[in-house]
Write a structure and sequence with these properties.
Elements (H helix, E strand, L loop, with lengths): L1 H44 L4 E17 L13 E11 L5 E5 L2 H6 L13 H17 L2 E6 L8 E2 L6 H37 L1
Parallel strand pairs: 3-5
Antiparallel strand pairs: 1-2, 1-4, 2-3
Length: 200
Amino acid sequence: MLGKKLVTAQKRGETRALCLGLGMVTCSMMMYFFIGITVVPFYTKSVWTTETVCKVLKASIKDKVLCPNSEGSEDEDIFPYPCLQVWVNLTASGQEVMLYQTEDTLDRNPKCSYVPVKLENSKEVKAQIETIASNFRKYQTFPCYYDPGGTQTNVILSRLYPPKGLLFAFLWPTLMFTGGCLIIVLVKISQYVSVLSAWQ
């Protein structure tokens, strides 16, 4: 009687462990799919792939502009802010080009190098942009990214999804997938050993 209860409990434990392993594999596949349709397209579309050194030529703040209403954005996303324009000398080619914070900045407003987060207090936005401009004037040389193919003549300060970020995004689903497969394999080995012992 006791042996029968132990076998039943063992089967229940194996079933739960197998469900856990299958659940982890399923979740990891869903995460792979989600990353594949969200992060990967932005990474592959970015043409600013080569790092070089930029030297600031001019950092000026123009009059207030409106953030253009891009596709899919709401009216409340439109707000006035001082337009910071940063012109740099591209070391790779010696050209004078405009610097943008990220790829998204160019899409949101090609006239300005930086698009601030919407804040209720316009003084805070102005102070933030002035701080950024003074930092550019202070640190004249810094790494930036340009398009080696020449389709984009401007440069960006940082990429939204660099190679390291893409690898980090795939790290967690890979660990979950590996853990799920390992649990399934261990359960199958346990079942095989139980059957082998029963035969003996």
